[in-house]
Amino acid sequence: MNKYELAIVVSAKIEDDARAAAVDKCKALIERFGGQITNVDDWGKKKLAYEIQKMNEGFYYFIQFEAESTAPAELEKRVRIVDGVIRYLCVRQDEA
Asked: What is the SS3 assignment for 18?
């Protein structure tokens, strides 16, 4: 099992419960593909580096998890269409 981190930026224009539902859906996708979530960091609302879909702010979440090497590709296919998620990135964490 490899260690990964999924970073997602959720739209600041949606309601709190819809934002929580988007994050929960991403967590459920990780578990669906055999991943085990180890940590979830909520960085809150931050200013975006550039405008995305006429928005200047978004809510940042970082989800650390362990999964097989095939999970990130499957995960990115599904996270792409989750409502409210405007950007995502899944990276492998190196052993330090």
From this structure: helix
The token pair at 28 is: 């459920």
At residue 14, what are phi and psi to the nearest 5 degrees?
-95, 160
Which DSSP symbol is given to 63? E
C-alpha distances in Å from residue 32, one per residue of 26, 78, 91: 10, 11, 18
Sheet holding 85-92, edge to edge: 36-52, 55-67, 2-11, 85-92
For the chain, residues with pLDDT lower than 50 are none
Eight-state DSSP code of residue 82: -
Question: What pLDDT score does 1 carry?
Answer: 87
Residue 94 has a pLDDT of: 80
CA dist., res. 87 & res. 31, Å (int): 20
φ, ψ of residue 41 to 5 degrees: the values are -105, 125
CB atoms within 10 A of CB 91: 11
